[in-house]
Amino acid sequence: MPASASAPEVCTVAKPRCPNLRLLLPNFVKRLNASDRGVLVHRPPSSPRELVACNLLFARYSLTVGTFILVAGRFGDDFGHKRIYIIGLAWYALWSLIAGLAVFSDHVLFVFARVFQGLGPAMTLPMGLAILGQAFSNGPKKNMAFALFGGSAPVGAITGFTTGGLFVLPGAWWPWAYWSSAIALACLTIFSAWVIPDTPVNGETQKRSLRETLAHLDPLGMATGVIALVLFNFAWNQSIVVGWQQVYVYVCLILGVVFAAIFFLVELHWASTPILPVAVFTSDVAFVLACTACGWACFGIWVFYAATFITQLRGVTPLQLAAWYSPVIPSGLLAAFAVGKLLGKISPAWIMVIGMLGYSTGSILIATMPIDQTYWGQFFFGVLIMGVGMDTSFPAATIIFSNAVPARYQGMGASLVATIVNYSISLGLGFAGTVELQVNDGGITQQQKLHGYRGAFYMELGLAGLGLALSLIFVAKECMAGRSKKAGVSGRGNIELPVD
């Protein structure tokens, strides 16, 4: 770890007007983010083409969030986390309103609104984490704060399923699913500006000229990074629609890889203030990021395809779907509280292993579940276990990063973890969608659909297994490093000093 991990910078913030809400507000906004994604699964697709469209809407929203989080992190570090947080809330409210207004237009406006909507949580999610990172010093309180932040996700997901189910009932109107979010977000924008304490801005920022400020933002790194992420993800998700036989699909994939290489060259050799400081990246951090990517790609596939499986093949209604998923709330919250207590007592590496075990077990249960099995069988226990996976892996990753970077880089550290989470969800859906369409033989009959969904679930299981293997390697590496350190200390203690 960098030296900052052992001697973190202390950053004081103004005392909030409502101290107990300092943790609540970032959690509540993350809940709205999760609930908004949940709305999409409440109008079950009636054909393979509609299923692909739903997959793309789900994936491209997460793509927007994951792609622009790093950019938002740098802006937050330079111009103040609270300021960018408030802007993100207002932006999110505006495009939620427009998404609902698309009912008076066509699907093109709705798709654009969903894409631009993702820029809101791209700002609020890392800024909320950064505010928490600055508000608490390293210790039990900080561990619990990050754990509870992660624990808000299952509450938000079930809120979204329930809200979406209510607004597609006969006599209701689906745009209110978005308009209600817009109203809530507008109120939160005003409330947050009053409640959340002002976060300190780097003093050097205020002394820079406009040209120096632009150079410090690392525009070349931002541009190449965003282009690489968009092209690579677009290729995988677009292949679901048109297939890999289209030249432009694999051209986009190749260009994405090329721009990614250019991005790393810029960050290593060109940028004076890189958007991703190289000093942050250690082997431990690399293992954590890889485990996080595998776990959340698995989770994104599970959320979308489990819901599709039971609505398409079991005829489960939207409100029943919310009830079926509801056990994730107690399991997720209990896992979050447990992680908050355990962090500091056991290594985050072991917590990551627990998370990967949860993802792997939950994936096995849903992949092998018979169509006509009772809810209280594999689906029920799968929901409980996946909640544990979700709310153990995320806090472990954020704590490691928050402790590893100085206070002035809290936005960057939080942004990187959030980028991995959201981008992995989007990319994982692209992988799963490709597998599904390759094995479902058109997806016309129920048996063909089942075959396609099984293929997606096995893709999910493969990602979960990879994450588990990486987490076990990480633990083994950490144990070996600990033994070497103890052996070195013991050896130095037994050295006989020469006698003059």
Describe, in plain words, how this protein is organized in 3D:
It is found in: Membrane. One of its GO terms (molecular function) is transmembrane transporter activity. This is Major facilitator superfamily (MFS) profile domain-containing protein. It comes from Carpinus fangiana. By secondary structure, this protein is mainly alpha-helical. It folds into 2 domains: 389 residues, MFS general substrate transporter like domains (Growth Hormone, Chain: A, Up-down Bundle); 57 residues. The N terminus and C terminus are likely disordered.
The helicity comes to over 70%
Note the beta-strand portion. under 5%
Number of strands: 0
Average pLDDT reading: 78
Largest sheet: none
Order of helices and strands: HHHHHHHHHHHHHHHHHHH
Q: What would you say the CATH architecture of the largest domain is?
A: Up-down Bundle
Output the CATH class name of the largest domain: Mainly Alpha
Note poorly predicted spans: 1-44, 492-500
Looking at the structure, the CATH topology of the largest domain is: Growth Hormone, Chain: A
Shape: globular
Structural class: mainly alpha
At the fourth level of CATH, the homologous superfamily of the largest domain is MFS general substrate transporter like domains
Number of helices: 19
Tally of discrete structural domains: 2
Query: First CA to last CA: what distance?
Result: 40 Å
Cα Rg? 23 Å
Subcellular location: Membrane
Protein name: Major facilitator superfamily (MFS) profile domain-containing protein
GO molecular function, one term: transmembrane transporter activity
Organism: Carpinus fangiana
